[in-house]
Amino acid sequence: MIAAICLVVGVVLGVAGTRIVDRVRARRLVDDPEPGERRRIAPAVKVVAGAVLFVGALGGMLYGCSQYLGNQGKTLKAYFHLVGRGDAIGACALLDTNARAKLMLLERAASCEDAVTRLHASLTPEERDKLADDDPFINGVESAGDHKELELTSANPLHIVYMTVIDEGGRELIHDWR
């Protein structure tokens, strides 16, 4: 949804930029017209200037959107990195009570730290490296009150597609995933 909004804004900026360039170019690059002639600018100059502005605006918008989405997933990324490195205490610190209970149930462990240790041990060295070193790509964010649902587009060793994070006492914690 955010990516679509960014694309629309980029297109609008590209069109507006083309019209501005038309006015500037018409004043600066064309000789004074003969009496009775209208001032015209070469179509190629319009196309090139419009394309440059459009690509620049679109690139800037997409970069800004990806930065925004990336910042929304800081807790998710930290969790992935900690699990990949086997830091059970750090990973558990990012989980709320619900997420800890779910992880302990899935890993059949007596504590959250044991669950993260088992999860880490179940991964191949390549999967651990991917979690520890790579950032998952966040495709979308939906917010409702103190909950945010993050949608991931890249495949990850934990096979998480959606993750819900909550604001608990000023800290963002992982609440659930699927």
Describe the structure.
There is one protein chain. By secondary structure, the chain is of the alpha+beta class. 60% of the residues lie in helices and 15% in strands. The chain is built from 7 helices and 4 strands. The protein has helices spanning 2-28, 43-72, 74-85, 88-93, 97-107, 112-122, 125-133; strands spanning 138-144, 147-152, 162-168, 171-177. It has a 4-stranded antiparallel β-sheet. Helix 1 (2-28) packs antiparallel against helix 2 (43-72), helix 3 (74-85) runs antiparallel to helix 7 and helix 5 (97-107) crosses helix 6 (112-122). It is elongated and about 90 Å long.
How are the SSEs ordered, and which strands pair?
Blueprint: H1 2-28, H2 43-72, H3 74-85, H4 88-93, H5 97-107, H6 112-122, H7 125-133, E1 138-144, E2 147-152, E3 162-168, E4 171-177
Antiparallel strand pairs: 1-2, 2-3, 3-4
Helix pairs in contact: 1-2, 3-7, 5-6
What tags apply to this protein structure?
Nuclear Transport Factor 2, Chain: A, elongated, 2 domains, 178 residues, four-stranded antiparallel sheet, alpha+beta
Quick recap of the structure?
The chain is of the alpha+beta class.
User: DSSP strand (E) fraction?
Assistant: 15-25%
| Overall tally of structural domains | 2
Question: In DSSP terms, counting alpha (H) and pi (I) runs of 4 or more, how many helices?
Answer: 7
Poorly predicted residue ranges: none
What CATH calls the topology of the largest domain is Nuclear Transport Factor 2, Chain: A
N-to-C SSE string, H for helix and E for strand: HHHHHHHEEEE
Task: Note the overall shape.
Answer: elongated
**Kindly state the mean pLDDT as a whole number?**
80
Structural class assignment:
alpha+beta
As laid out across the biggest beta sheet, the strand order is: 1-2-3-4
Fraction of helical residues = 55-70%
